[in-house]
Design brief:
760 residues, eight-stranded mixed sheet, four-stranded antiparallel sheet, 28 helices
Length: 760
């Protein structure tokens, strides 16, 4: 891309300008590429500015919609019937206090949140509303069915379909209607983080509001109790049926067990053993005792079986042996004492010896008796052991046989035990449910009774108006956004650049009402004159050689200000001392000759047709540096004349005499004239009238100009209402809301000495 400093050394040709993309051309003229992202810091500011512009541009729509919604909301508020709200607070516990363990058979939800949510939905149920209507006897209260608020829809329906008299409604129908009204006007408000819940009811009558709120609590408590009673009654009936079935099964299983025991001769004396098993256990225990006794007796007998010594415990424990030993010891002592005096053959000594021998004989006899007694005890124990061992072996065989035969018996017995346990458990449960069915257990309590409202809770005028104001403002903003998105009218510089993709060479403001464009151009300090001076300054930097020698001014449609722009550009450069030729090339709808009060008998069409030479058709104006070539007589086919070589000959010849040639051409859409003129010119500027040009038309026109290969150097935004567009104009002048359009005060007649600008 060639910079501004390089432009003086490297001139751009027409082909180079045509090859430029819109963004490249924009950057060449000092702008920023349209697709280039904004800096992060300015994104928020740009969004805020866009929002402010939207508010300013659509302020009438926003104000009208907001006021309409506010008015409707206020009227609706005044037409609403005052409602009085009564509130009652309940406590809903997770479970009831069990008076009988296991007596509560009502299923309980798994979690507190689920349980409380279920209770809230039950409070809003249709069945509870019907119960409340019945308890409060609302079907008998005629005032309860009076319409509470005015409805435009109901009024229209009533007007179109007048009420027809018919048979009076039944009690059931009135109850259904009352339940519906109750359900619509009740509100359940849980207290966060607790088991408390507020039941709020609104009604035109404060006493009735209190009565219905209290009835709601009573109906909910009664409904909860009824649910428990119904559950207990169902459980009781179910348990009765199960008990009957289990009783029959238990009796049948016991009969089967008894028949099998009689058949197999099985007698059970305990919960887990039979007689045979008991005999085996007793015999085994007796066998162990006898075996221990036999072993003991055998050891005692084996010790004294072949020994004559008297020092064994078996002998020493005998009183007779002990007495004989003591007596022998005395005799031996006496014999030794007398042996000191007498000789062994002495009769007294012989007598003592005989006594000792007799004692020894008695001791031997006593030992033999003890030894025989021990032997008899051993043999007796051995015999008993053998007999009991034989009995244990026989009983063991009998037990094995019994166990084989009792397998089916045990199966039948387990079935009997199972049926008996089930029967006893259900019987106990039945008794508990029967007792609990008569106990009024409840888990819902009234914390705060229903209050009697002293003042109406609705409607709240300030709140309703504030809500209507917010709704109206929000709706108007949404409507403005929708209109803004679907409206393709170009009314801002940003939108013009986005749609056209062209550099904005100039922004021409909308003049105030009562001030003509001519007067504004004559006033060098006016915003319009300043804007056109800025445009002409931009034109001097559009090519490497400065101002294009031949400049074509066109637009997508009519009345967008291209003729005014052509005159203003011509006047500016003429005041700078340049010789400028202004050509009216719109040979289908010429207008410049009327504004300049010039002759249109000969002109451009005459020159292109060869009827006259250009010097004969060019007219002088009051400004010696400005000349004018009118369109001339209307030709039958303007495109043929513009497509002939005479146009290029006329332009090249004019540049030999004039410094600049400004061509005011026709609109692009619908005809081919603008394409031919753009191709023949050195540069083309595209005029877009703010509030007149549409995006689709602009895009179509620019596509057609691209086909002509004409050098399109930028755009001019005209008739821009700065405040309506949402920002102040960049020249430091403000413009009032009373501005309308160009040409509102232009006189139809002006002197030939004045250069006049009007709408094109």
């Amino acid at each position: 891309m060639t910079s501004a400093s390089d432009a003086n050394s490297t001139p751009l040709t027409h082909a180079d300008i045509r090859a430029l993309e819109p963004n490249d051309a924009y950057e060449m003229y000092g702008g920023r590429a349209l697709d280039q992202p904004s800096p992060n810091g300015s994104h928020f500011a740009a969004t805020v500015r866009a929002a402010i512009r939207l508010l300013r541009r659509r302020k009438g729509l926003i104000f009208a919609v907001t006021m309409a919604v506010l008015s409707l909301g206020t009227v609706r508020t005044f037409m609403m019937t005052p409602l009085y709200t009564s509130k009652i607070r309940l406590q809903i516990d997770r479970s009831v206090a069990k008076i009988v363990e296991g007596g509560n058979i009502t299923p309980v939800e798994g979690a507190d949140a689920d349980f409380l949510r279920t209770q809230y939905e039950l409070l809003l149920s249709r069945s509870l509303s019907e119960r409340v209507a019945q308890m409060a006897r609302l079907a008998e209260d005629k005032d309860f069915f009076v319409q509470r608020s005015f409805s435009f829809l109901n009024a229209i329906v009533s007007f179109l379909q007048p009420a027809q008299s018919g048979p009076p409604k039944s009690q059931r129908e009135l109850m259904d209607i009352a339940a519906g009204i109750v359900q619509q006007n009740v509100t359940v408000r849980p207290v966060p983080g607790s088991r408390l819940v507020d039941i709020v009811y609104s009604d035109p009558n404060p006493a009735r509001s209190q009565k219905i709120a209290a009835a709601y609590a009573n109906a909910f408590i009664a409904s909860n109790l009824d649910k428990r009673f119904e559950a207990n009654a169902y459980a009781k009936a179910f348990l009765e049926d199960q008990l009957k079935q289990l009783k029959l099964r238990l009796e049948q299983s016991e009969k089967t067990l008894l028949a099998f025991a009689e058949k197999e001769q099985i007698v059970s004396i305990g919960s887990s053993s039979s007689m045979v098993e008991t005999d085996l256990a007793n015999s085994s225990a007796a066998l162990g005792n006898i075996s221990r006794e036999r072993i003991k007796n055998e050891q005692l007998w084996r010790q004294v079986e072949k020994s004559d010594a008297l020092n064994f415990p078996q002998f020493l424990a005998s009183g007779a042996v002990d007495g004989l030993r003591a007596k022998r010891n005395d005799l031996v002592t006496e014999y030794q004492e007398r042996l000191q005096t007498f000789k062994p053959n002495y009769p007294a000594m012989v007598q003592i010896k005989n006594k000792i021998a007799e004692v020894d004989r008695q001791l031997n006899a006593e030992v033999k008796t003890i030894r025989a007694s021990l032997k008899n005890s051993y043999e007796s124990s051995l015999g008993q052991e053998r007999e009991i061992a034989a009995r244990v072996a026989k009983l063991r065989t009998d037990v094995l046989d019994f166990q084989k035969r009792s397998i089916e018996y045990n199966i039948l017995k387990r079935e009997v035990d199972t049926n008996r346990d089930l029967y006893n458990g259900l019987l106990q449960r039945y008794k508990e449910v029967d007792v609990a069915g008569g106990v009024g257990s409840n888990n819902i309590f009234v914390v705060d009774a229903a209050n009697l409202p002293g003042s109406p809770s609705s409607p709240q005028l300030f709140k309703s108006m504030l809500l209507a104001l917010f709704l109206g403002f929000g709706g108007s903003i949404a409507l403005a956004l929708v209109i803004e998105n679907f409206d393709d009218v170009i009314d801002s510089v940003e939108e013009a650049e986005r749609v056209g993709g062209l550099a904005t060479l100039g922004i021409i403001p909308l003049v105030k009402a009562g001030i003509g464009v001519t007067d504004a151009l004559l006033d060098v300090r006016s915003p319009v004159a300043e804007a056109y001076r800025s445009l002409c300054t931009s034109l001097q930097f559009t090519t490497s050689r400065g101002m294009p020698k031949t400049l074509f001014v066109t637009s997508a449609g009519a009345k967008e200000g291209k003729s005014v722009s052509s005159i203003a550009i011509t006047q500016h450069f003429a005041r700078l001392g340049l010789k400028v030729l202004l050509i009216d090339a719109d040979m289908r709808n010429p207008s410049l000759h009327r504004y300049l009060e010039a002759d249109n008998s000969v002109g451009l069409s005459s020159c292109l047709a060869g009827a006259c030479a250009p010097p004969d058709a060019i007219q002088k104006t009051a400004d010696p540096n400005m000349a004018f070539l009118s369109s001339g007589p209307l030709p039958p086919n303007a495109a043929d004349l513009l497509g002939s070589p005479h146009l290029m000959w006329l332009l090249s010849g004019s540049l030999e005499v004039f410094d600049l040639v400004i061509i005011d051409g026709p609109p692009v859409l619908g005809i081919a004239d603008a394409l031919l003129l753009s191709n023949a010119s050195e540069a083309t500027i595209f005029v877009m009238g703010s509030g007149l040009a549409r995006g689709g038309a602009v895009r179509s026109a620019l596509k057609r100009l691209e086909i002509s290969k004409g050098p399109l150097i930028g755009s001019v935004i005209t008739k821009l209402d700065a405040r309506a567009a949402g920002y102040e104009y960049g020249y430091g002048y403000g413009y009032g809301a009373d501005a309308f359009s160009y040409g509102a005060s232009i006189s139809s007649t002006r002197g030939a000495s004045q250069t006049i600008a009007g709408p094109a």
